[in-house]
Amino acid sequence: MEKNVAKILGCVASDFTFSHEMYGEKFYKVYVAVERESGTYDTLPIMISERLMDVGQNYTGEYMYVEGQLRTYNQADGDKKHLMLSLFALDAFITDSTEPINHIYLEGAICNHPTLRETPLGRKISDVMLAVNRPYGKSDYIPCICWGRSAYVPYNIGQGGHIAIHGRFQSREYNKVIGEETEVRTAYEVSVVKLEVTHERRVS
């Protein structure tokens, strides 16, 4: 079974903008807004090849289905690097369907020491950085957030434990203080719906 599967269906919320070129193939970023059950939206970054769709077209307001993998890379920001997360499209097309889809399946190793905290309403949360292997020795480091009873699982098994999760790709705004100014930024992560342990922590 594939260890990194992402499927979304939502409304196109931007034009295509050029991202990078690799081996003569150009890749573009586009944002797709996927509605939650609450009626709010996650506006999600999609990385897509010019070979999959006509990136010169403006599809804003139309609905797009995307299937692929969550991928991460480090983006330089002055002297610091930020982990950037996006959905790398393996298939994508415009559809007449408007029924939202947002499903992520990941299987990997916990590569941080998970913390356990509470929301203001007392709900438990655990933040997990999950290392998901790609072929040829590469890995994607994907931030995940576990809720309720699931929050205790990564906290208890700790760094090095292997888990499989089902969840959704979500966007979240937060305030970043830069000098004397506050800037609104957007974080992307996987909100975990279901979690299971596949291997316990390795003992060195």
Folded structure, characterized:
The radius of gyration is 18 Å and the shape is globular. The longest helix has 6 residues, at 152-157. It has one helix spanning 152-157; strands at 4-12, 17-22, 25-35, 41-49, 63-77, 80-95, 101-110, 115-118, 124-133, 139-147, 162-178, 181-199. The chain has 204 residues and is mainly beta. It contains one helix and twelve strands; from the N terminus they run ββββββββββαββ.
Question: What is the rounded distance between the termini?
Answer: 28 Å
Strand count, sense and barrel status of the largest sheet are: 12 strands, mixed
Which of globular, elongated, flat, extended, rod-shaped describes the shape? globular
Low-pLDDT runs of 5+ residues are: none
Average pLDDT score: 91
Q: What is the helix tally?
A: 1
Q: Structural class, from helix and strand content?
A: mainly beta
SSE sequence, one letter per element: EEEEEEEEEEHEE
Proportion of residues in helical segments: under 10%
Total DSSP E strands: 12
SSE blueprint and pairings:
Layout: E1 4-12, E2 17-22, E3 25-35, E4 41-49, E5 63-77, E6 80-95, E7 101-110, E8 115-118, E9 124-133, E10 139-147, H1 152-157, E11 162-178, E12 181-199
Parallel strand pairs: 4-6, 10-12
Antiparallel strand pairs: 1-3, 1-5, 1-7, 2-3, 3-4, 5-6, 7-9, 7-11, 8-9, 9-10, 11-12
Key terms:
204 residues, mainly beta
Summarize the structure.
It is built from one helix and twelve strands, in the order ββββββββββαββ. The protein is mainly β and 204 residues long.
